[in-house]
Amino acid sequence: MAHTFLLEIGLEEMPAHVVTPAIKQLVKRTADYLKEQRVAYDDIKPFSTPRRLAVQITGLADKQDDISESVKGPAKKIAQDADGNWTKAAIGFTRGQGLTPDDITFKEIKGTEYVYVDKFIAGEPVATVLAGLRDIVMAMTFPTMMKWSTHHFQYIRPIRWTVALLDDQVIPFTILDVTTGRSTRGHRFLGKEIDLATAEDYEESLTSQFVIADADKRKALIKKQINKLATDNDWTVDIDAGLLEEVNNLVEWPTAFAGSFDEKYLTIPDEVLITSMRDHQRFFYARDATGKLLPVFISVRNGTDHDLQNVVAGNEKVLTARLEDAMFFYTEDQKKTIADYVDRLKTVSFHDKISTMAEKMDRVKAIVSVLAKHLNLNDAQTKATLRASEIYKFDLVTGMVGEFAELQGVMGEKYALLAGEDPAVAQAIREHYEPISADGALPESVPGAVLALADKFDSILTFFAAGMIPSGSNDPYALRRQATGIVRIAKDQNWALPVAELAQDFIAAETAAKVAPDLDQASQIQAVVDFVKDRIRKILRSAKQRHDIIDAVTNGSSSDVLRIFTAADILASHADDANFKAVIESLTRVIRLAQKAPAELADATVDAKLFENDSEGALEQGVTEVAAAADKGLNDLYAALADIQPTIAAYFEATMVMAKDDAVRNNRLTELSKLANLALGLGDLDQLIVK
To answer: In angstroms, rounded to a whole number, what is the distance separating the alpha carbons of residues 387 and 686?
Structure first.
């Protein structure tokens, strides 16, 4: 007989951002537990609201699956002594299986007899197994945890009630001072506590108490209500998925409504209005058919439409207060010049162990000058980027950003345009923060991308030099995100970005301009290179690249971000070639032998007079061709290395590299070193797994 089980955890209101991850965690933990306990079922349906996390399991089996298996133990010669008595090994083995030595049989495998026991474990009733879900509930983890009452136990919010129903029977267990039952609670203000007759009654019973427990149904209803308001008023509403998710996790019985604000506030930039509505009040905004922002908003109430006009008026009052503040700051900020704000940055700390924000901008300008030359920017791009680097943090000390911190960069662009700056400069000011998340939007303009790189490089170099290197999950200054940004921008713009060489140039430029911080940045260059390569590894893993190819390209000698990605693509594209195994094996043999070359041979040249067979001359000619191909790019390099494989094979067939004669041996190691250095341009090929 198939059963239905309901587990509900009733809580004080959870933060909206926790609800969805929490219910996913509960579903996974429950599924893993049932699998571990050998309990078959058809489906696990999740339910979640701000006050509850619940799962309804359908098609549950009556009991655990029985276990019937033959278990192998130690060899007979270990299980019995010379007199045929059972040894401690045999006794311990059978005890571990819940049996005795009397249950032992012997089976021969490849000429050796081994101990075997036939093991049978009858499955426990499902009711007994489900009681173990107590531990699953208590093991859940959350971003923030709290204690309550006199308990030492921590959870996202205090647990107020629990339901555990198998069909119509309560599965008893206790969490702290809360014992499972059949009573659940409806909407905090509109509903009441009710008893569930069976586990199948859950969703319908809660609906009668003004709770839509199915998050997907609740979300669909909110979306339908918003679209109806938009259609009725001829508005265009872009329903932001993140905001919809958040609002959905704030309500149990949603009712959407519209409000308005004075048109005078439309003189404020749209970004400010949208931030006030969406981020601060969790309102949806509307536009007309031409895309112009309208003086209206849509919100969602946790309740019915009773006395809705009072709710509308209250929300309008709160939003108006926010917009009045924004209007004031927007007006006051324009009374000062950009130069005034830049001067104020001399008293604003970037970090007390590093410098002021003004000094950071000086360093970034020096870095920009290096990047502009390295990337061959044209005069207009260079001029715009350098000007942006001189002022790009000025909006941090404006009143608007002081009140609306999430608008930094955005207001910089707005105010720069109002002050008559080049639009390219203004755009770079906004874009230098991008990407603002691991997969966020990237700068679209060249000046914006260069300024973003310079700002991020400065932050990573100076924080590393100041000893504030991320470890474990600790990354208070978001340096991993900034390193990811560097990698993504270089890849997006198709820019060669040799991190080690550029970092040296950055430090030299800062020193020449007398803006270098009082920190030893040079000692941290290799650590920064490794840090950036870690971000490359993560991106390649997320792209489902082969792990051995990732290891090969990131463990190579190159610190060029674009080159590493290109090398990974090339190796992956040739991995299924018929000759890939032969090519890689030949090259790795070359690399390993080249490692035996004495350090003094680093700058040596190959002397053809010391060749003792034709294969040495053929290899030298091949190396010359590979070197010429390497100048054209990595695709040509790989093709040339693949072409030279038969020559390498013939060389090793005819040549003893480690000859007794020192001059001959060193000449051969020099020749192999030249080839190895070229091959290492693709990465540490020894990491590749070839079959």
So the answer is: 47
